[in-house]
Write a structure and sequence with these properties.
Blueprint: H1 5-19, H2 28-32, H3 38-50, E1 54-57, E2 63-66, H4 75-83, H5 108-123, H6 127-131
Antiparallel strand pairs: 1-2
Helix pairs in contact: 1-3, 1-4
C-alpha cells in the first residue's frame, strides 16, 4: 500500500495551515510555496473544503484556513478526504456474500484486522501532534 501524491500533498497543505493557525487565511500561493503545483493544490483544497476540514475566505486578504482546531483534525480525516476510506481489500467495502469465498474466506479477517489497526493509528495522530512533533513510533516491547 502506498499513499498517492494526492494524499501526501493534502497532508502537507493541512500541516501548513495548522502551522499558521490563528494567523488568518493563507493564500493559495503561500501554500504552494511548499513546492506543490498551484492548480493541483486548488483541487485538493476544494476536496478538503467539501470534507469540512478547511474553510475559504474570499477577497484580497482571503485564502484557506482550518475549519477546526488542529488537535481535532486527524491524519485519518485528511486521508479519507483525499483518498477515500482506508481498506486493505476491496472486499471489506462489499457485503460478505459479494465474494464467492464469502464467510469462508481465510484472508478477510486479516484484512479487517489490518484495516482497523491502521485506521486507529491514523485516527490517533492529529495535526497538532504533527506541528508539535509529538508523533513517535513505539514498537511493542521495544523498551522492555
Amino acid at each position: 500500500m502506498k499513499l498517492s501524491t494526492k494524499g501526501k500533498y493534502g497532508l502537507y497543505a493541512m500541516v501548513f495551515l495548522a502551522q499558521h493557525d490563528g494567523e488568518g487565511p493563507q493564500s493559495l500561493k503561500a501554500i504552494a510555496d511548499l513546492g506543490l503545483p498551484e492548480q493541483y493544490l486548488e483541487q485538493l483544497l476544494g476536496a478538503l473544503r467539501r470534507a469540512g476540514l478547511v474553510t475559504t475566505v474570499r477577497g484580497a486578504q482571503g485564502g484557506y484556513q482550518l475549519a477546526a482546531d488542529p488537535g481535532d483534525i486527524t491524519v485519518l480525516d485528511i486521508i479519507d478526504a483525499m483518498e477515500g476510506p482506508v481498506n486493505f481489500s476491496d472486499c471489506l467495502s462489499a457485503p460478505k456474500n459479494a465474494c464467492p469465498r464469502g464467510e469462508n474466506c481465510p484472508t478477510r479477517g486479516v484484512w479487517e484486522y489490518l484495516t482497523v489497526k491502521i485506521n486507529d493509528l491514523l485516527k490517533g495522530v492529529s495535526l497538532k501532534d504533527m506541528v508539535e512533533n509529538n508523533v513517535s513510533l513505539q514498537v511493542e516491547g521495544e523498551n522492555e
